[in-house]
Design a protein that fits this description.
The protein is α/β, with parallel strands linked by helices. It contains 14 helices and 13 strands. Strands 1, 2, 3, 4, 5 and 13 form a six-stranded mixed sheet that branches. Bound molecules: flavin-adenine dinucleotide (FAD). The site of flavin-adenine dinucleotide has 31 residues, from helix 1 and helix 2.
């Protein structure tokens, strides 16, 4: 059986970006995954991306693969805020440029004999590789609060399972949470004719201000981003004016103490809505400072007992309750391989700066690498940090960023 140098599992932004950097390093990867599948199948239709255009390019060693180049070459204009359909079209275009022979089969299991990885695919075929990169995304890590453990998923979907908000037209829907996914989901449900209420444990909802500082700076320095532009306001678009440069750069991030790193991660991933949401959520009631204590499945929906002593009856609940990263949820790894991966107490794998696990040749990219390279890895913009580092580690030589 032919042995591949590197197999990349995942054809979302991370898998595709890493494939482009591996090619730059003269390693031709074998890429498996359905292109942009999570974005196509899980994100709500008509969703707007919170990240700006410059933070939404899938990183590659050549400018011809940026979102700006996509617009130039295809003549498809992408406006800001970016509609999810446009971003998916860009990701699929990127895939066609970089990975012509994408294998869209599911990987069922991965085993390791101490030298070579063996991947079993859905149709029973086996592939062998010296290195494997897992870029499986955030979808495996959805967090469902324990009060909802007994509730069927159709009655209480997670916000990452809200592909068609129109199906809730005319229904009473409680949205739990105050992050971007929860709030954008609430706005789309409201616009689709659902009777929406937002419930949050915190004292209220916060929205980002219009990024006038960045917009003004980009207006004053038109054209492609230069080194200088990166130094003043990097495109990653995460954090405040004082922290944005540290968060953008994994080397600066890693030099901070663990406590400072945790504080920076909190700033970058704080639950907060985009600046365009307040107008869209006008008229949607918000119940702040309440927790859902108990959930009963009743004949016509769900009855929620709240921490303020009140109850509310709804047809559906949307759980905008975030994600809990835990490498043990990677159930495609066979038991002994999973046990060989060193983990931190909180379930993240211990990774090198090249995103290699403690198993030689096994790499993990995307949100699972955020402890190693910082919070950019939770977003598309972090592909610029992950791609060159993973490719350099596999190829054993520096790779153009
Ligand atoms: C509602 C919502 C809104 C978001 N908005 C933004 C935003 O505006 N900006 C932003 O930067 N980020 C946003 N994100 C975060 C975004 O999901 C990630 O940044 C991005 O998808 C990470 O890319 P990825 O390549 O790691 O994973 P994904 O895009 O999830 O891709 C995973 C890939 O792995 C493949 N795969 C998984 N398991 C297997 C298997 N067993 N076998 C074969 N293939 C497999 C899938 O087919 C897919 O190709 C949002 C997330 C959500 C949920």
């Amino acid at each position: 059986m032919q042995k591949q140098d590197a197999i990349v599992v995942g054809a979302g932004p991370y898998g595709l970006s890493i494939a482009a950097y591996l090619q730059e390093a003269d390693v031709e990867p074998y890429v498996i995954g359905r292109p942009m599948a999570f974005w196509k199948e899980h994100m709500p239709r008509r969703m707007l991306l919170r990240s700006h255009i410059e933070a939404s390019s899938i990183a590659a060693p050549h400018e011809q693969l940026s979102l700006a180049a996509y617009q130039r070459m295809t003549g498809s204009p992408v406006t800001e805020p970016i509609p999810v359909e446009d971003f998916i079209a860009y990701g699929q275009w990127f895939q066609r440029q970089v990975v012509r022979n994408l294998d869209t089969r599911q990987v069922r299991s991965i085993a390791y004999d101490g030298d070579v990885f063996a991947l079993s695919l859905e149709d029973g075929e086996r592939l062998l590789a010296r290195s494997v990169v897992l870029a499986l995304g955030i979808g495996l890590f959805t967090h469902r609060p324990p009060q909802f453990a007994h509730v069927p998923r159709e009655l209480a979907p997670h916000s990452s399972d809200l592909a068609d908000p129109a199906q809730f037209r005319g229904k009473r829907v409680a949205v739990l949470g105050r992050g971007q996914s929860a709030l954008e989901g609430a706005a789309l449900l409201h616009e689709s004719g659902a009777d929406v209420e937002i419930l949050t444990r915190s004292a209220g909802i916060e929205y980002l201000a219009y990024p006038w500082r960045t917009k003004l700076f980009r207006k004053l320095t038109p054209g492609p981003l230069t080194r200088f532009s990166h130094m003043v306001i990097p495109p990653t678009d995460l954090g405040r004016f004082r922290t944005v440069r540290i968060i953008a750069d994994p080397d600066k991030f890693r030099r901070r103490s663990p406590e400072a790193q945790a504080a920076l991660a909190k700033v970058a991933t704080k639950p907060i809505g985009a600046y365009w949401l307040p107008t869209r959520l006008k008229g949607v009631p918000v119940r702040a400072g309440v927790r859902v204590e108990r959930v009963d499945v009743v004949a016509d929906g769900l009855k929620l007992a709240l921490s303020d002593g009140g109850t509310t009856c709804v047809d559906r609940v949307v759980l905008g309750t975030g994600y809990t990263v835990d490498v043990s949820k990677y159930d495609i790894l066979d038991g002994s391989l999973r046990r060989a991966i060193r983990t931190c107490d909180d379930g993240y794998p211990v990774l090198t700066t090249g995103l290699q696990t403690s198993v030689n040749g096994l790499y993990m990219a995307g949100v699972i690498g955020e402890k190693a390279l910082g919070p950019t890895l939770r977003f598309v913009t972090g592909t610029s940090n992950a791609g060159p580092r993973v490719a350099a580690a596999i190829a054993g030589k520096p790779v153009r960023r």
